[in-house]
Predict the 3D structure of the following.
Amino acid sequence: MLDSFLIRAALAGVGVALAAAPLGCFVVWRRMAYFGDATAHAAILGVALSLAFSMSVFVGALVVALAMAGLVSSLSNRGYAMDTLLGVLAHSALAFGLVAASFLTGVRLDLMAYLFGDILAVSRTDVMVIWGGAALVLALLSWRWSALLTATLNTDLAYASGIDPRREQLVLTVALAVVVAVAIKVVGALLIGAMLVVPAAAARPLARTPESMAIIAAVIGAASALGGLAAAFRFDTPTGPTIVCVAAVCFAVTAVFGGVRRAA
């Protein structure tokens, strides 16, 4: 079954959606969209370093994404405004990654594939890595779901319940780094933030509980991946951006539905 590149692409897209969408709910609830972008942009530097030292791209992207997340958390406690800090680090990491990639010699690097994704080029190994990463993220979120929700809703309530919000922030940081590492080949560094935020935002008008929002976001994300793959194949468009376009259409539809339901 995995001999078909379309089957591999579909499995990769669904795997990324299942990992990114539930995590994206926490990104939306915590207003961490820029944090996701900064982590994703840093992954380009990880790709360049991993190729320079002949390491796995997944490992390089994961390590640099974790380092970026740790740096943001550290500097945010030293008086820097979070939006300014994330803007500086996100663009700096992307620029350093692109410059580092230009110094690579004897290595074939398709920057467009890592910036915008190349889901049609995923291998069997890539599919296994993506689904392994998705399983890890889902297991992590399931394990810490109640504590993460409490820390997201109210830090004082979290402390009163014996929950350390900083520990839960670390859990989200690790999960986000894993998602970035597995998604970079599917939708690319510039579009990972969209796959985190757009399906979750589209699910919001349809959901009545946090759990239902996570499930609906996963369904929308998977449908966007499959729909975008089919549309790209049909109209010969870039696959990664097409997947995000389908997710954006889903968001527009649910936003209209939510507005109609509120007015009724």
